[in-house]
Specification:
By secondary structure, the chain is mainly alpha-helical. The chain contains 13 helices and 4 strands. This is DUF5009 domain-containing protein.
Length: about 375
């Protein structure tokens, strides 16, 4: 990781959209009380999609768009593959560090994870971008979605029989247990993982979707208005296709189903179209600063906020003879007495987001962008 000055022109709407997504990620990951969360701020129990379920696919979509902007002029660089590999390994390593922090118990470390999936999707999409013809992206996108549908819906699951989409008996869960063993999967299940191996395949398609929309945005043959129209049109078509496919292959974040890719990718494309039109085309940008500040240091705030949140849970304080974490003590002191449980939980999360905004604002004022 290194710091650098903000010397190159960036697509402001993309930084805004990325920042909005990351700020939402920090919000839903840090409620004051996990027992009192408003429904839109929780993941769907299994099938279905809440606003919280949109955050990760939106980020992978943004990764795809960013690849186009970051690598388009560097395709001829001899050291580009090495740089892509290095960045991917650092991201994966940061994910493993988060999985082991603070006890670093390698015997039970969760190998899959959010940063690990970002690393894999980035690596595959970036390599495809620099070594293959963009004309093949859509064909590959369709092939991935269809192949995953066939695997999940028609391939028998060893030890369980017919294909199914239940939590512990679907093919993706079986692959996770076979490859990682239960000791290295998500601690809340140990029998399947929401960022598992097989479901990373359609996650790559989410990145591909972003790359295709990024190429559209960078096109020199279309006007800005045409770009907005096509971004929205492709997004709307994907959104409707996802809803239709949901009838036979349910929208499901944990399985990252093909319908989920289309549904979320469509919404992301329409969302970016709106941001691009308002911010970059119409020039209404004054409101963007708080989220741009989040967007230019997205990985930094995701990683650091997780470390700080866990550290606050580790620090124990004694109140009235009872031991509790510093995080819970502060929450009980400043929020619980004054608000109902759900309001208090949300207020705690918003405070965490705001504190990180102040930290990122100081970095932004000093022109510091920490790149991974």
């Amino acid at each position: 990781m290194h710091s650098q000055l903000k010397t190159k022109q960036r697509l402001l709407s993309l930084d805004f959209f990325r920042g909005l997504t990351v700020a939402a990620m920090i919000l839903v990951n840090n409620p004051g009380d996990w027992e009192h969360i408003y429904a839109p701020l929780e993941h769907a129990n299994w099938n279905g999609c809440t606003p919280t379920d949109l955050i990760f696919p939106f980020f992978l979509f943004i990764v795809g768009v960013s690849i186009v902007y970051a690598l388009d002029r560097k395709k001829s660089d001899s050291g580009l593959f090495k740089a892509i590999l290095k960045r991917s390994l650092i991201l994966f390593g940061l994910g493993l560090f988060l999985a082991t922090f603070p006890f670093f118990d390698l015997a039970t470390v969760r190998i899959p994870g959010v940063l690990q999936r970002i690393a894999v999707v980035y690596f595959i999409c970036a390599v495809l971008f620099i070594y293959t013809n963009p004309n093949y992206f859509f064909k590959l996108f369709v092939l991935i979605l269809m192949a995953y549908w066939v695997l999940m819906m028609f391939v028998p699951v060893p030890g369980f029989g017919a294909s199914n989409l239940e939590k512990e008996t679907n093919l993706a869960a079986w692959v996770d247990r076979a490859v990682f063993t239960e000791a290295h999967l998500w601690s809340l299940s140990r029998t399947w993982d929401p960022e598992g191996l097989l479901s990373t395949l359609p996650a790559v398609a989410s990145g591909l979707f972003g790359m295709m929309m990024g190429l559209l945005l960078k096109s020199k043959t279309q006007s800005q208005s045409e770009k907005v129209a096509w971004l929205f049109a492709y997004g709307f078509i994907a959104f409707i296709a996802g809803l239709c496919w949901d009838l036979i292959f349910p929208i499901n974040k944990s399985l990252w189903t093909s319908s989920f890719v289309l549904y979320t990718g469509g919404l992301a494309s329409m969302g970016l179209a709106f941001c691009y039109w308002i911010i970059d085309v119409q020039g209404f940008s004054r409101f963007t600063k708080p989220f741009v500040i989040y967007g230019v240091n997205a990985i930094t705030v995701f990683f650091a906020s997780a470390i700080i949140a866990r550290s606050l849970n580790l620090i124990q304080v004694t109140i009235n003879g009872e031991s509790t974490s510093l995080k819970n003590y502060l929450y009980q002191l400043f929020y619980v007495p004054y608000l109902n449980p759900y309001h208090a939980s949300l207020a705690g999360a918003l405070t965490f987001v705001f504190i990180w905004y102040l930290i990122l604002w100081l970095m932004y004022k000093r022109n510091i962008i920490i790149k991974v």
